[in-house]
Amino acid sequence: MVEEKIILGIDPGTTIMGFGLIKVVNKKMQFLQLNELDLKKYDDHYLKLKLIFERTIELIDTHHPDEIAIEAPFFGKNVQSMLKLGRAQGVAMAAGLSREVPITEYAPKKIKMAITGNGNASKEQVAKMLQGMLGLKTLPKNLDSMDGLAAAVCHFYNYGRVEIGKSYSGWNAFVKQNEKRVKK
């Protein structure tokens, strides 16, 4: 019996949202697509969130991923940037949850470790490793799409290891795993 699934990887952002898709057939990865949603030309933060949601829904409805892997926000010093990034991630997650696609989030260091063996690898090192692994002829100008692809590949490598990231199969699972965040 042939086991087949599609994994959508997302690198959320309010300037550029990167994404990549892989297909797994009998435990072997195949590259499907990578691209980005360029949001630089928009000033309205709420419009950017709407576009992230709509693009994620479009990707889900077009490619029917079985799972979504999303990069978790890293902790930075700029609180406003963190808030915007968290909103972008939340909107992408909400799109997946609305279509009942299971979501797993991975820390940036975890993704880098899965791809390169070094949790402190540069974006360029991650991109070069993915290029070799998946037989990509060229690399995109912006590496955000490669970061989305890296999330998908990280999920492939960590399949079945629930302790690696947080997984949500729907709204109820999200609420149950985040009870402290729910206002009563």
Outline the secondary-structure elements.
Layout: E1 4-11, E2 16-25, E3 28-38, H1 45-63, E4 67-71, H2 79-98, E5 103-106, H3 108-116, H4 123-134, H5 144-157, E6 166-168, H6 171-177
Parallel strand pairs: 1-4, 4-5
Antiparallel strand pairs: 1-2, 2-3, 5-6
Catalytic activity: Endonucleolytic cleavage at a junction such as a reciprocal single-stranded crossover between two homologous DNA duplexes (Holliday junction)
Binding site for Mg(2+) 2: 71
InterPro entries: RNaseH-like_sf (IPR012337), RNaseH_sf (IPR036397), X-over_junc_endoDNase_RuvC (IPR002176)
Structure description:
By secondary structure, this protein is an alpha/beta fold. Helix content is 44%, strand content 22%. It contains 6 helices and 6 strands; from the N terminus they run E-E-E-H-E-H-E-H-H-H-E-H. It has helices spanning 45-63, 79-98, 108-116, 123-134, 144-157, 171-177, and strands at residues 4-11, 16-25, 28-38, 67-71, 103-106, 166-168. It has a 6-stranded mixed sheet. A hairpin with a 2-residue loop joins strand 2 and strand 3. Helix 1 (45-63) runs parallel beside helix 2 and helix 4 packs across helix 5. The longest helix is centred in the middle third of the chain and has 20 residues, at 79-98. The protein starts with a strand and ends in a 7-residue tail after the last helix. The mean pLDDT is 88.
In short:
Its main location: cytoplasm. The chain is α/β, with parallel strands linked by helices and about 180 residues long. It is built from six helices and six strands; from the N terminus they run βββαβαβαααβα.
